[in-house]
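As a next step, the fold was encoded as tokens, giving this record:
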Amino acid sequence: MTILNSYLCDKWQAGSDPQTPLYDATTGLVVAHASSHGLDLGAALHHARTVGGPALRHLTFAQRGELLMSLSQALHEHRDALIEASRSNMGTTRSDAKFDLDGAMGTLAYYAGVAKQLGDKTVILDGDQIQFSRSKRFLAQHIFSSRRGVAIHINAFNFPAWNLCEKAACALLAGVPVLAKPGTATALLSVRIVEIWVDKGIAPLGTLQLLTGSAGDLLDHVGPQDCIVFTGSGSTGQQIRSHPKVLAHNVPVNVEADSLNAAVLGPDVEPGSDTFGMFISEVAREMTQKAGQKCTAIRRIIVATTALEAVREALVERLRDVILGDPADSRTTLGPLAGPAQARDVAAGLAELAKNAELIYGGQTEVPGHGYFVAPHLFLSTLGKDAPFVHEHEVFGPVATLLPVAGDAQGVIDVVAAGGGGLACSLFSDDAAWAGEVLAGIAPYSGRIYWGSAKVYDQGTGHGAVMPQLVHGGPGKAGGGEELGGERGLRFYLQRTAIQGDTQLLRSVFGRIAD
């Protein structure tokens, strides 16, 4: 049986028993085991601070960018093998595996480009020099410099490649070493990725470590220069934020959590129009891509009452075309959930949702094999912003609920807001006045808004695509965090400092940095 080791202190290490099993999501068979028991996590963090940190800070942004590009190219060389690793553990179709891996490689390559723009320096200026007194000879300059700790990345199970690489790209470029802990259920792909990087000797010693299995006592060893980035459930995010050592040292924590993302169809959109087709395509894709196991997936479908029947018929027709089955079969368009725990959670969520909404489409009834398969489920609730459970809990699978509303802007805003904050919201309308009012109203509840219209129906990147140029995160239930966004993504790993001093001396130091 395969044992997934951890890569700590620049060597592969096996945890002791008991081991946690990882399953082939298609067959239900155990494919590997992982454990962190007995591993010295305090030593791993110390190694990152004392070996990895100085090595990274010795490099300029441009040199760190070369490192990121090498990491991306190494994955591209092994793309097919990594796609197979994703299928054998997580049960992804080839298309879904490519979505994860290509997103990972693309983000690394994008931040390599950001590094070129930052150039041969190690500090970023924040704005111009500031005169705050009568004297023009005594000014101040804000700068961003690398934190002297470790970036602890606790990742979710649904994107074992993209989660790992998008976080590492920003931290490594900022000059902060990484210790990543992937979601155990799908850790096989993350381990294979790090094995490729280690075998090629790309990253300097101490700059990149991987912990498989549970987090154990990892947070007991954090210090004031460390930072934590977490993707997963809101309850786990709260546990991390409230850990005694995190509180004692005021360790920065960024959380991306579950959210009830919405798609809104404007009352101006006619069935059969390009905008209507765009809306139906996005909703159907977000329900089924990665078996609905996406943090950005559409869970609430908000439509005008007058368009309800047309939307219902169009969505059911699309969902009927979904083929649930073995992802190794090229005809399959919907694979299994990631594992038994995920299957149990979705089953419980579906049962609760069925008590509070009407099931209008239940999908394929025959489940192939012995894996963790769930067909698409489409529900309907006529209770709008007051719909119980619909606005309270995310069923993390191929599941969404139709919510008809009157169509006025404020009514739509109220329903979106009832979700308590989301990572992404889509709005489909060609009416600029109506859409503008809705956009202004839903923006405080959304990390990103995707506006679909007739002029971009064949050009948009898609509701669920997380672009490294744009911020990713959201308020409230979405965790209140923010990642990526180009250079903005580095800021979490940097310390902003105001330096006061003689004008000429400041310019002699920071003028060179700014060139």
Notes: The longest strand covers residues 138-146.
